[in-house]
Amino acid sequence: MQLLILLASIILLVFLILKKISPVLALLAVSILSGLAFGMSVSQVVSSVNNGIGNTLGGTVMVLVLGAIIGKIAEESGAAQKLVFVLTKSFGIKHIQWAILFTGLLAGIPLFYNAGFVVLVPLVFAIAKTTRLPLLYVGLPMVAPLSVTHGFLPPHPGPVALAAIFHASIGKTLLYGLLIALPLAVIAGILYPRLIVKKKNVDEAITVEAANENALPTAAKSFLIILSPVALIAVGTAGIYLTNGWLKNIFLFLQEPTLALLLSLGLSVILLKLNAEKTALYCTEGIKTIALIILVIAAGGAFKQVLVDSKVGDAIKTYSTHLHLSPLVLGWLIAALFRVALGSATVAALTASGIMVPFLAPGISPELMVLSVGAGSLFFSHVNDTGFWMFKEYFGLSMKQTFQTWTVMETLISVLGLAGVLALDLAI
């Protein structure tokens, strides 16, 4: 009976979102109705909703807010644009795809997908026009790493929220995520475009210049602004291998994502010599970009908690034992189904997490569970995903062409991401 109620809840959630109801309201409504249908009292449902929101946001909200502010600073200051010009000059036109790929990876770490896309796509058009290369040949290397970082790497909303739900280490999630994300970005952003897009030889004498490049931050400042959060968290995570002492405490201090991002924000303000008024403006604008995502995460946490407290996850666990699937594979599969049905990668990941919490038994890495669900949340993007339409409209593609390029690329990242998770599971 519990499984039938869960199925009905999912169908209702999909129906509401397809009817353009806000995911926040849809998730909250379905959380309450499903809790009552599972036999929970009104007070139990309210308690689950409140606990779900509090527990999910408690470990994520400041990470998301600080990450959004740093991303806004990188966007508005031109640090992200500077990376394009530096890497283009370093790699040369012959290897322009690699330059764009690394730019997407670096910019994709602090910038959320939509912001990264909007910031980088004009430069992709400029490069394509200057080099006379096909637009998709230089466009796919930009969107592939943005998608990969969105699904696998903190401080993006999905991985951060999942890490809080599964009680995973942000530092380990980041390190494991990088091991998977880097080869995935190369396969989806370099090898895949070369297979499907024909190109002509380009003139090596051509260079890509920016009319306002002198007004942008220096290369050193740009790299520090964008990479300092990742560097601090990665260095801090290495502290787990130290023996007890003051040095270990410093490393553990840096490992905390909120503190690492706060230090990075301070560094960005100092490097760019931002005054109080400018800093306040960037903070306000950055928070605006993440406000709706935070609300979706909160509502997703409420739905997750209702599923956990109703014990429906245990029923699924009992049923799934007959399928003989690894919990990592099952997490990917459930997230993939939600992705196809709901469109939003973040909503798909959060919805799947509530079902997968009971599967975190000893021997199952919570960090790999984060990455498995994250990989599933990228599966088969189609017409109910805003990323699908952004790619289609910006690159002027037909529906068929968008399915053949964007949808196939996302599916490739998702499936190979699962393969990477399973390979890490064997190795660690």
Automatic annotation (TrEMBL):
GO terms for molecular function: gluconate transmembrane transporter activity. It comes from Flavisolibacter ginsenosidimutans. GO terms for cellular component: plasma membrane. Keywords: Membrane, Transmembrane, Transmembrane helix. It comes from the Bacteria. This is Gluconate permease. The chain crosses the membrane at residues 50-71, 83-105, 111-128, 135-153, 173-192, 223-244, 250-274, 286-308, 328-352, 364-383, 403-424. Pfam families: GntP_permease. InterPro entries: Glcn_transporter.
